[in-house]
Amino acid sequence: MPALIPTIDEIATEKKRRVLLLSFPGSGSKYGKNPIRKHVMSWLEVMGIPFQECGDDPTISGYSSYRGELFIDVECQSDDKDYKKLTQFLLGADGDSKFTRIALSFYSPAT
After folding, report:
1. Are the C-beta atoms of 66 and 60 separated by less than 8 Å?
2. DSSP code of 79?
3. Is 34 helix (H, G, I), strand (E, B) or coil?
4. Global confidence as pTM
5. I want to staple 19 with a disulfide (CB 3.0 to 4.6 A). Which of 9, 12, 27, 87 is the partner?
């Protein structure tokens, strides 16, 4: 069933702040079966960190089908407790991702 979901740039503009996009390169249309994506979503739910499905930035990738991207609703600041939890979950001590096939991107509101 088709659904209209906001793009990450629309969310950044609405929130009037920098926002975080989590994407799963290589998942394509099979994002719903991606075990890493499922694990991350379950962890976010348990931690009470809000998230929602969203589209990628169309100015970079053009408009395309949804590929499983998630907007993670945390303040992108090192002193935010949920941001700290998220980065500790996703990143190792060296700053590299603990998971393969996950990309973190930050987006600022359009000016």
Report:
1. no
2. T
3. coil
4. 0.88
5. 12
Give the pLDDT score at 88: 92
Distances (CA, A) of 66 to 51, 73, 83: 16, 19, 25
Residue that has been written with the tokens 């060296």 in this structure: 94
pLDDT at 61: 60
Euclidean distance between CA atoms 107 and 88, whole angstroms: 20
Residue type, position 102, single letter: I
CA-CA distance, 111 to 108, in Å (whole number)? 9
**pLDDT tens by residue, 9-65:** 999 999 999 999 999 888 777 888 999 999 999 999 999 999 999 988 766 666 667
What six digits make up the tokens of 88? 């500790």
> Can you tell me the mean pLDDT for 83-102?
88
**Residue 39, C-beta contacts closer than 8 angstroms, at least 6 positions apart:** none
The residues, any chain, with a CB within 8 Å of residue 83's CB and separated by 6 or more, are 74, 75, 76, 77
